[in-house]
């Protein structure tokens, strides 16, 4: 499956060098795959709840470099067919690794998510997503 999409959300992070961060995001992305010689192009709408533990590698007054790993629950808001006889799973779980930087009030993160469970019972696939996000800390 190939995907391209967008997300918006909120997060909270503890202030220690070894930190915990929780998030709530809404994401949408498209996917393309072939099943039994037929092409499918679903669009997903999800609520995501990532929780991760991270480490602040470099921290100055104006810049922070950090890395983290964690897990993410994904809830599909729209029920869709994965194949003619099956729907995509409503709830999936990912593991992820993240590297990011905060410069003044802006945050940039690069994250790799890999699904722990299959996307549906008929498709032997797991989602793999590389995401680049830009945020603003209020």
UniProtKB/TrEMBL annotation:
Superkingdom, natural source: Bacteria
Any single Pfam family the record assigns to this protein: OMP_b-brl_2
Residue ranges of every copy of the Outer membrane protein beta-barrel domain listed in the record: 14-118
Protein name (database record): PorT family protein
Organism, as annotated: Sphingobacterium olei
